[in-house]
Amino acid sequence: MGTRAWALLLVLCGTIFLEGIDVAMLAVAIPSIRADLELSTNAAAWVISAYVLGYAGFTLLGGRAADLLGRRRMFLTWLTVFLAFSGLGGFATEGWMLIVARFVTGVSAAFMTPAALSLITTSYEEGPQRNKALLVFAGTAAGGFSLGLVIGGLLTQLGWRWVFFAPVLLAAAILIAAVRLIPAQPGGGRQGEADGCPQPRTTETAAADRRGFDFLGAITAAGAMLLAAYAVIRLEHGLDGWELTAGAAAAAALLGTAFVGVERRSPAPLVRLGILRKASVVRADLGALLFVGAFFGFQFVVTLYLQELRGWSSLQTAIALVVMGCDAILAPTLTPRLVNRFGNGRVILGGFVLGIVAYGLFLPVGMDWTYAAMFPTLLIAGIAFALAYGPLTIAATDGVTESEQGLAGGLLNTATQFGSALGISAVTAVYGLASSGSDPGSTLSAFRTALIVPVAMVTLGALISSFGLRGGRGRRVAGATAGASSDVSANAARQTAS
User: Fold this and answer.
1) How far is CA 484 from CA 229, 335, 354, in A?
2) Which of 99, 267, 276, 359 is deepest in the core (most CB within 10 A)?
C-alpha cells in the first residue's frame, strides 16, 4: 500500500482506537463520577449500560445505513455527533445528563464504527491487501483499550471530566484528517497507483433514493435490538425482577419476528435475509459473540477479584490487565504467518483453544495468588485474541458483495456488542446466585463458580468454529502484517459499574 492508502487506513483505525480509549477511561473514572455527582448504584450502572444499549441497539441499522445512505456521509456525521456528546458528558452536573450523553455517544458509535469498517472493506481489494487492513483495524482496539485503562487512571487524578474532554481532542483530529482523506465522490472504482490510495468503490445512495428507504424495517430492527440489549443487560440481576427481563426478551422476539416479516415483503429490504444463509458469516459472527463474551466476562470477574477481594486500586488493576493487550505487539508478526501457513479456520480454532486453556488455568484462583501466578492466564488470553479476532473479522466480511459490506460489518458489531454484554451479565448473574455470604471465602467461591461461564463460552465457540474446518484448510492470508483484537473491548467498561 502507498503512503496515502496507509494514511486513510490510520484515520479509519483511529475511530476504533477512539472508541476503545473512550470507554476504557470511563471504566476507571466511574467511582470518581459516582462520588462527585452523588449517584446511586443504579444510576452509576446506567452510565455504562446506556452506552451499551445505544451501541448494541443501533449497530445493525448503522451498518446498513452506511451501505444505503453513503459510507463517508455516515462516518463523518456520526463522528461529529460522537465528538459533541462526549464533550457534553464532561459538562454534566446531574446523573441523567450523563446517561443521556452516553446513550447518544453509543448510538453514534453504532453508526460510525460499521461505516469505518465498510470503508475499509470497499476501499481495499479483497485478498492480502484487505486482510492486512482488517487485521490492523481489528488490532487497533487493543492499543486503545489498554492505553485507555492507564490514561484514564491518570486523568481521573486531575478530574474525571478530563476523561470526556480528551476523546474530543482525538475525535477532532480524526475528523479533520477524514474530511481530507476519505474521497468525497461515491463509487467510481479505484484510484490510480500513483498515490497508492484506494477509493471506496460503491454506495447505494442512488438506488436507495429510487426504491425508498425501509423505514418500517429500520423501526422494527432498532426496537428489537434495543429490547434485546436491555434484556441481556438485565441478566446481571439474576432472578431479581425476572418478570421485567422476560418481558423485554419476549417483546424483542415479537419485534424481531415482525422485522423478518417486513423484510420478506419489502422491495428494498434493510437486511437481505439471504446473507444469514451464508454459513461462514453466521459462524464467524457466532464465534465473535462467544469469544468476546468470554473475554470480557473473564475480565470482569478478574477485576472484581482484584479490587473487591484483594483491595487493589483501579490504577493497579488497569496496569495489571495491560498484558492482555499484548496482541497489539505479538499479532503483527505471529497471526499473519500462522494464517498463511495453517489457514484462517485453524488459527481461529487455535485462538479458542488457547482461550479454554487461559480461563481454565484461573479456575482454582486462590485468596493470596501473586501476580506471577495470574500472569500466564492474562498473557495467554491476550495471545488468544491475537489469533482469533482478526481472522474472525475477515471471515465475517469475506465473500460478501460490496453493496452489503456495511451490513456484514453491522452484523459483526452486533454480535460483538451483544457478546460483551452477555458475557458480563452472565458472570454477574452466576456470581450473584453462587454467593452464599459476605465473608472472603464465600466471595472467592462465587468468583470460581462465575469463571465457569467464560470457559463454557469459549468451549462452545471452539465447537462451532471446528465446523469451518470440514471444507479444508480455510482461506489463507498471504502477506498480512498486522495484529488482531476486539473493537468491542469497549463494553468491558461495565466491569467497574458494580
Assistant:
1) 26, 8, 15
2) 359
- Environment class of residue 462 by beta-carbon count within 10 Å: exposed (0-12), middle (13-18) or buried (19+)? buried
Angle between helices 71-90 and 162-181 (to 10 degrees): 160
Is 210 buried (19+), middle (13-18) or exposed (0-12) by CB count in 10 A? exposed
Which pLDDT score, from 0 to 100, does residue 213 have? 65
SS3 string of 409-428? Answer: HHHHHHHHHHHHHHHHHHHH
- The pLDDT value recorded for residue 347 is 92
295 has a pLDDT exceeding 80: yes
At a CB cut-off of 8 Å and minimum separation 6, what does 357 contact?
380
Residue where the block lists cell 479454554? 356
Give me the helices (H) in 159-241, please.
162-181, 205-211, 215-234
Which residues have a Cβ under 8 Å from the Cβ of 401 and sit 6 or more positions away?
none
DSSP annotation of 482 reads -
CB 254 within 8 A of CB 199: no
Average pLDDT over residues 29-44: 83
Whether 427 and 295 have beta carbons less than 8 Å apart is answered as no
Element containing residue 463 per DSSP (H, E): helix 452-466
How far apart are alpha carbons 142 and 24 in whole angstroms?
A: 11
Q: Which amino acid is at 131?
A: N
Residue in 48, 41, 7 with CA at minimum distance from that of residue 26: 48
pLDDT value at 401 more than 50:
yes
Asked if residue 136 lies in contact with residue 14, where contact means CB atoms within 8 angstroms, the answer is no
Q: Any idea of the CA torsion for 275, 280, 286, 289, to the nearest 10 degrees?
A: -100
Q: Which residue has the higher pLDDT, 303 or 384?
A: 384
Structure letter (DSSP) for residue 451: T
Q: Cell 461495565 sits at which residue? A: 494
